[in-house]
Amino acid sequence: MVSDDLVMHLSSPDDQQRLFRYLIDNKVSFRDDSILVDWYIRTYPATFSVRNPNFFAEAARSMPTVLELEHYPTVIKQGNWTAKEGSTMAKYGNGRTGADFFRGAVEQLQATYIGYHGYARTWLKDNPQLTVELLNRCGYWFFPESVEIPDRFVRGRTAEMKILWRNRGVARAYFDYQLVVKLEGPAQTELRLPAGNTRWLPGPKLWPETYALAIPENLPLGQYQLKLKLYSPQASRDVKLPLKADLADRQGFYAIGRATIAAQGSD
């Protein structure tokens, strides 16, 4: 990962384009260290002080990108965080504050990682609510908007589960996750399937997925609680979902509903 300044230091536009293409083709992504730098506020207010949104749009298709704020104490001193009268933000920000520019830059960069470039205690004291907001916006944030399952599963057969997903973050996920489904009742079994998550781009669009659940032939009949979670094999960890905490069990599964396991040939 390199700063976009590396490309822009070249004087020739042709050389800039060649280096940019070389970096993208060799899987080198970009970080922007200049968010809310005074000169960039003045020069690029329409893109929230981001000089090269096109660089990041291209990189974000296949790689994470990074946003780094100008030194937070410097932004405060210059009056740009609050758009203090006479500051560059007051002159060029069109009624917006430093926090507004931070929000806009996160979206412009489709940033997975963000930094405030200052002391944690100072930042958190000044911006407790903004911190939570930005943490929920950067990267991806997958919401299962709806889950559709049949009332009755037949053991030894395949049942369909349909989920509508929405990504309320600003970036995509770059690794494939697993959807892990647990049936818990007279016995217990777990089913692992490709989640399809790398298709779930940010925005208002809903992403429908249909999962084929192979119900084991030897699963005892009866009523079962159906639970699910997302899991990252690469990181060996669960991917948290924004569902109520009381729906989750100790293994990180969220309770979705109930289903009956029936025998083949039953009504």
Briefly summarize what is shown.
With 267 residues, the protein is an alpha/beta fold. 26% of the residues lie in helices and 30% in strands. A hairpin with a 3-residue loop joins strand 8 (178-184) and strand 9.
- The termini sit apart by 59 Å
Unreliable segments (pLDDT under 50, ≥5 consecutive)? none
Structural class category: alpha/beta
Number of domains: 2
Can you count the beta strands?
A: 13
Run of helices and strands: EHHEHHEHHHEHHEEEEEEEEE
Largest sheet: 6 strands, mixed
Taken from the alpha-carbon principal axes, the silhouette is: elongated
Task: State which percent range the strand residues make up.
Answer: 25-35%
- Work out the radius of gyration: 24 Å
Number of helices: 9
Query: What portion of residues is helical?
Result: 25-40%
> Taking all residues together, what is the mean pLDDT?
96
Topology:
Blueprint: E1 2-3, H1 5-8, H2 13-25, E2 30-35, H3 38-43, H4 53-59, E3 66-69, H5 72-77, H6 88-92, H7 98-109, E4 113-115, H8 120-126, H9 128-137, E5 142-148, E6 152-154, E7 158-167, E8 178-184, E9 188-194, E10 207-214, E11 222-232, E12 237-239, E13 254-262
Parallel strand pairs: 1-2, 2-3, 3-4, 6-13
Antiparallel strand pairs: 5-7, 7-10, 8-9, 8-11, 11-12, 11-13
Q: Which features characterize this protein?
A:
alpha/beta, 267 residues, Immunoglobulin-like, elongated, 9 helices, single chain
